[in-house]
Amino acid sequence: MRLWDLLTGTPVGTLVGHSDYVNAVAFHPDGRTIVTAAEDSAKLWRTPLHHRRTIADEDAAPDETEVRSVDGRFVAEKHGERVEVWTVSPRTRVFVAPPAFTDVTQLAFSPDGRFVAGKDDKVVRLWTTADGRTSGTLTGHTDSIDQFVVSADSRRIVTASQDGTARLWDTHTGRQLGAPLAGHTDMVAAVAISPDGRTVATGSADRTVRLWDTGTQRQLGLPLIGHRTTVWSVVFTPDGRGLTTSGEDGTMAWDVAEPADLYAAVCAAAGGPLTDDERQRYSAGQGLPEVCAS
Question: Which ranges does the UniProt record give for the WD repeats (predicted)?
């Protein structure tokens, strides 16, 4: 795995240690710790020295998952069909999730540690960390949820689904906020919310990335085009002014400081004049003026 400077687009380091395909990467909020997951193991890396520690190996059961709260006090674990939350020190079990919700494929703590969330098919459920009480059940998608993220202030969750939409949810009430974020023409495979909570980014199998206003649930500007395969990952930079997107065709970095004016990004990604078909596909119902002229 390589580390890149987003300002210059040049590599600044290489993390060597995995022996198989790396399919997930995440930074800790401290900006200095990276966790990578591959077919062979999961590892923690400390930058800039790139020291590593293996935290799970290929012998681990495929239906086991472990995530820790941001403050390091709690750990949520999935063992087969059982989800448990423990304190880290001393190791004491806090609760076991009800057995009716057992096919969990993603777990995440809220940044404030108030709740832990887990997704199962079309549903995301929230449990209060302190006592395991079910504090919210997020239902509304008509097909499986691929991914969810919790906002930095822990007040909202955004879900991405194979039904072609993303949705915003209030974590206190469990209610959907406004209309679905609809515009993609295929499943939504990736989602992110900006650090200030004002913008959502979605990546799709339609090969586009779209930005949305969390207050109005409306699309901001035009889709970001350039990927030739499904967009599997979208990540905002810590200042919210940049966006990194990844697919099987590679990784792209975008300047999204002014999301309402994305014509330049569209033209740069297209690499030339848009065809009539591309104008129709990427206009998002807003129409495209005479841009990307030859």
Answer: 15-41, 104-137, 138-179, 181-222, 224-252
Q: Catalogue the long-range contacts made by 249-252 (C-beta closer than 8 Å, 24 or more residues apart).
A: 251/4, 252/226, 252/227
pTM of the model: 0.74
Cα 70 to Cα 40: distance, rounded to the nearest angstrom: 25
Residue 254, both tokens: 């975008």
- Side-chain half-sphere exposure of 221, counting CA atoms within 13 A: 21
Cβ atoms of residues 283 and 222 within 8 Å? yes
Q: Is 164 helix (H, G, I), strand (E, B) or coil?
A: coil
Show the domains of the chain with their CATH numbers. Answer: 1-59 (no CATH), 61-139 (2.40.10.480), 153-294 (2.130.10.10)
Residues 98-145 have pLDDT tens digits of 776 657 888 999 999 999 999 988 999 999 999 999 999 999 999 999
Is there a contact between 118 and 155 (Cβ–Cβ < 8 Å)?
A: no
245 or 51, higher pLDDT? 245
Specify the amino acid at residue 176.
Answer: Q
Residue with tokens 């390091």: 72
| Burial class of residue 21 (count of CB atoms within 10 Å of its CB; 0-12, 13-18, 19+) | exposed
pLDDT tens-digit series, residues 19-57: 777 766 776 656 667 777 766 776 777 766 545 444 444
pLDDT value at residue 268: 64
Task: Determine the 3-state secondary structure of 282 from DSSP.
Answer: helix
